[in-house]
Amino acid sequence: MFISIAICGSVSAEFNITKIRENKLLTRRELVLELKTDTTPTRQSVRELVARQLGVDIAGVYVRKIETTRGSDVVKAEVHVYQNPEVAKAIEPLYIIARNLGEEGKKLLEAKKKKK
């Protein structure tokens, strides 16, 4: 069942959580979402959507992958939702963290490269 919601202001989408897996060892929930939308949503908009719907802090939400199917309006996204954002920073790869943080993430990657 798809639920309609507005993302990124005027862009609207319908979404459905197709799979939820509880990973107790890593203290996270692993979600697979399907979104029906005209355009591919940004990672930030998917993070905001998941945080709002699950009632969690956006700092603990990381979008791993967004896939669009050619000729279809359905977008699939894989998302990890952590209970503690500090655990997320320890577990998630640096490139995933950087992709989800936008400009802050780019600065984080540059600082990491300079250390090498």
Strand content: 35-45%
CATH topology: Alpha-Beta Plaits
CATH class: Alpha Beta
Q: What ranges have pLDDT less than 50 throughout 5 or more consecutive residues?
A: none
For the biggest sheet, the summary is:
5 strands, antiparallel
Average pLDDT number? 86
Could you tell me the radius of gyration in angstroms? 15 Å
Across the major sheet, the strand order is 1-2-3-5-4
Class from helix and strand fractions: alpha+beta
Q: What is the distance, rounded to the nearest whole angstrom, between the alpha carbons of the first and last residues?
A: 48 Å
Q: N-to-C SSE series? A: EEEHEEHHH
The number of strands is 5
- Could you say which overall geometry the principal axes of the C-alpha atoms support? globular
